[in-house]
Amino acid sequence: MLPGGLASGGGGRGGRLCLLRWLGLRLWSRRGTLVFALLWFGSWLFLNGLVLVHRSIMSDYCTDDKSKRILQRLCLEFGKGSVTGDMCEDLCVLGLVEYKRCLYYENGKKVIEARWRGNPIILKSKLENFSSYEPLGILDYQDTAEELSPLDVVFYATLEVRNSLGLAEEDEDEEGGGGGGGNNSSLARLWGKKLKHRDKSYSRAELASLWSLLQQEEYTFLRVLQDLSTHVAKVLGSCGHFYAVEYLSAGHAWDQNIFSLEEVAAPGLQGQDRAGARGRWTTREMVHRIALSFLDMVWHFDNDFTHKLHLCDIKPENFAIRKDLTVVAIDVDMAFFEPKMRDILDQNCSSDDDCNFFDCSSRCNLQRHRCSPHRRNSNLQVICEKIFRPWFSPTLLGAKAGLPLQVELQRAVQECSETDGGVEEREEDGGGRGGGGRDIHQRLLNILTRLLHEGGASGEGGGAWEEKGHVHTALNF
Known about the structure:
Strand order of the largest sheet: 1-2-3-5-4
Distance between the termini: 96 Å
Number of strands: 13
Number of helices: 16
Radius of gyration: 32 Å
Helix content: 40-55%
Structural class: alpha+beta
């Protein structure tokens, strides 16, 4: 009897058909089983891949739970005496630092919004864990940290700051070297004022915490300029490897005024000029004041340090304003003093296009196929192009665009943004300031001041900022 229940005798042909059907069914079943197995295995691989990708993404996702755990680990380190800082007690013991939300987290860099004693702050750290930072090597050879004198700390801290900012000792001590030459000429003196006048040695926790902070370029930059400039975000305090800066709302390219001006008309300022009679400044008055503060910032960065400070990433998101309309640089990852700027620009090239480093550019010497180490454009030129030109365009001004002063301002901004040689730093001048840059700066300053007076404002404001309350120094890093 063959499969299918048919006899082999009388139904030979039918039997053969049934046999073929049976063999085909068996082959199909095996093939179907194989296809099913392959589909199942492929689905398993796909789902596991999704899980791995999801975990990878979520590991860098800015979650409140993860942020709070990071701060809890910091407080455990403080409890063990491994770290310290002027805000550790408030954060870990007194509960005076209130967590709000995570703002940013990528590759370990953590940015958190919080409130410290009722004031909004931003907590930052380049790396998630304190143990991820290189320890101060000298501590490995010392039985106790007390063997390090305050002057030793000045020495090691100054070396680290110089390395971070790209400043050699001979550069730092030059008076006016490299173009510039304000009174803020020596990092050693700057740190010495804060560190050496101390009647006791630093503890291991203090040294370890300070060293973790100095390994963060942004902290080092902001900390060095803390007492020298009103145009950078203020460092308010620290705990271990986390540091707090003032909370400021960043600008936005999609906002026609760049900044949220509704938040800055502070009542305390209204009584200082005639704008108070109307209750607040007009939008155009605030824009003019902010523009004047941009000019003040540019002049300050060009002239008031030993070396000119270059901003190589100028966009609205990298600036903020305080309530007095002072412009503040809040992202300084692409800010470089002159010596480091020269090192960055001094590269091989075949055309001028090869000599562009974000918003900083130089010219290509086609004979040597080498970029000039001196920047050909300027902070002012890029600000005119990216900030002032959209602000003072005829489209945005509407009916006021035809007024004489507005037309004069538009022409000055256009000239500022398009002029190249007039603001170029000449190599034969050792990187000195071009006269054209000073001229256009003065023209813009005069026009904006006249516009303020014409609008019934006093022309004050948008300048210096008086620091109040808690002051963060190197003594309480």
